[in-house]
Amino acid sequence: MNAPFEGIGASVRRKEDLRFTTGHGHYVDDINRAGQLHAIIKRSDRPHAKIVSIDTAAALAAPGVVAVFTGADLAAIGGLPCGWQIHNKDGSPMAEPKHPVLAEGKVRHVGDPIAVVIAETSSRPATPRNCWRSSSRTCRPSRP
Question: 9-49, pLDDT tens digit by residue?
């Protein structure tokens, strides 16, 4: 009789599946702490467009909303860093393109993050998601 294969490509018996398939799993969304805030990210519905304006006044005026951030607000903090810095053969650092946290000036794909609403709760009528329905943004389609 052959022994079970134990190496690269071998099936790995998962231990966590039973608790998730029986409804006993714990997810990050199940964790609630006093004073926690909730966020919803507004993403682009266009594949390529110039962001002309984002009016956040309605979202900011909604009860329970703590803050609204756009790409312009976060531009000063820079972008998301590369996981590790690689150096060229001559020792110079690699050329690292900018990876903004939120889209700045234009969106490059459907789903590109445009803005984020931070609110005290996600269960009130003024949830972050509802705030976006009442806010306006202007994006002009453009060619890639």
Answer: 888 777 778 888 888 888 888 888 888 898 888 888 888 88
In angstroms, the CA 77 to CA 16 distance is: 38
Q: What is the pTM of this model?
A: 0.67
Whether 17 maps to a domain, the answer reads no
**In this structure, is residue 136 part of a structural domain?**
yes
CATH of residue 46's domain is 3.90.1170.50
Other CB atoms within 10 A of residue 133 CB: 9
Contact 133, 97 (CB under 8 A): no
Number of folded domains that form the chain: 1
- Looking up tokens 């009528």 gives 125
Please indicate, yes or no, if residue 115 is contained in any of the structural domains.
yes
DSSP strands (E only) in 33-123? 38-43, 49-55, 65-70, 106-107, 113-119
Q: Is the per-residue pLDDT at 6 higher than 70?
A: yes
R_g of the chain computed on alpha carbons: 22
Q: How far apart are the C-alpha atoms of 131 and 56, rounded to whole Å? A: 9
| Host domain of residue 111 | 32-80+96-141
